[in-house]
Specification:
Elements lengths: L9 E8 L2 E8 L5 E4 L19 H4 L1 E4 L8 E5 L4 H4 L3
Length: about 90
């Protein structure tokens, strides 16, 4: 029987650079990550109320290279406010 390897390398990071907010999906492990998807509870919304968590970046990424020598997948999004996240 094969041992189950824990899913410990893929993270969603928030980066603010040059006035633009980026959400990055990054693989911190030293092995590739395959068939990656993530969900947010509650849904992640921007200041205009759009569901950012439904973007293709978060639904399915076929391959994320290991951390060494790779750049994370990122997507610029309008600013996300804590109030919009709470549904206020």
């Amino acid at each position: 029987m094969d041992a189950v390897v824990p899913d410990d390398g893929v993270v969603v990071d928030v980066v603010f650079d040059g006035g633009v907010l980026y959400l990055e999906l990054a693989n911190l492990a030293d092995r590739p990550a395959l068939h990656v998807g993530c969900t947010f509870d509650p849904p992640l919304t921007d200041v205009q109320g759009r569901d950012v968590s439904g973007l293709p970046l978060f639904r399915h990424v076929e391959f994320l290279a290991p951390a060494a020598g790779s750049a994370p997948c990122s997507i610029p999004v309008p600013a996300i406010s804590p109030a919009s996240r709470r549904g206020a």
